[in-house]
TrEMBL record:
<keyword id="KW-0813">Transport</keyword>
<dbReference type="Pfam" id="PF00005">
    <property type="entry name" value="ABC_tran"/>
</dbReference>
<dbReference type="InterPro" id="IPR003439">
    <property type="entry name" value="ABC_transporter-like_ATP-bd"/>
</dbReference>
<feature type="domain" description="ABC transporter">
    <location>
        <begin position="21"/>
        <end position="77"/>
    </location>
</feature>
<dbReference type="InterPro" id="IPR050388">
    <property type="entry name" value="ABC_Ni/Peptide_Import"/>
</dbReference>
<dbReference type="InterPro" id="IPR017871">
    <property type="entry name" value="ABC_transporter-like_CS"/>
</dbReference>
<comment type="similarity">
    <text>Belongs to the ABC transporter superfamily.</text>
</comment>
<keyword id="KW-0547">Nucleotide-binding</keyword>
<keyword id="KW-1003">Cell membrane</keyword>
<dbReference type="InterPro" id="IPR027417">
    <property type="entry name" value="P-loop_NTPase"/>
</dbReference>
<keyword id="KW-0472">Membrane</keyword>
<keyword id="KW-0067">ATP-binding</keyword>
<protein>
    <recommendedName>
        <fullName>ABC transporter domain-containing protein</fullName>
    </recommendedName>
</protein>
Amino acid sequence: MAVGEQIAEVAHTHLGLSWSQSYARAKTLLERVRLPDPDAALRAYPHQLSGGQKQRVAIAAAIAAGPKLLIADEATSALDTIVQAEIVALIRQLVSEDGMTLLFVTHDIALAAELAERIAVFRHGELVELGATAQIVASPRHAYTRALLDAHLGLDAEPLLRQSGAFR
């Protein structure tokens, strides 16, 4: 299926829009997620897009029905650092503009600290720590959380702590 059809199908199915309205919504969404040349993207197939473009299309499809909750599971894990930053900024903007709640699943605690007001740390499917981001980053209680932070802190401590608000 072409990208436009995939996004339009969500709007058609969940919002009850006509197909022409659904395609118009798909184009608007591709513009919102900042895909260059949304008209061409509507006709493109996923294999014709880059990883970052595919992620933008996935985000457009995810918000096509106007959800109140956006679940982003490893939304940036296969992307390079620059594209990852763009996608994070885009998600943050869309969530803010649309008044959505974001549940961001990631193995990257630095990224979680950048995005989240609260962090839940799971290990082997079990919740081991839950709290405000600044508190978790500044004084983790569980050994696994400390290990995650130590792994990041060895690379570059200051941005994680500054972004989390722990030292603001």
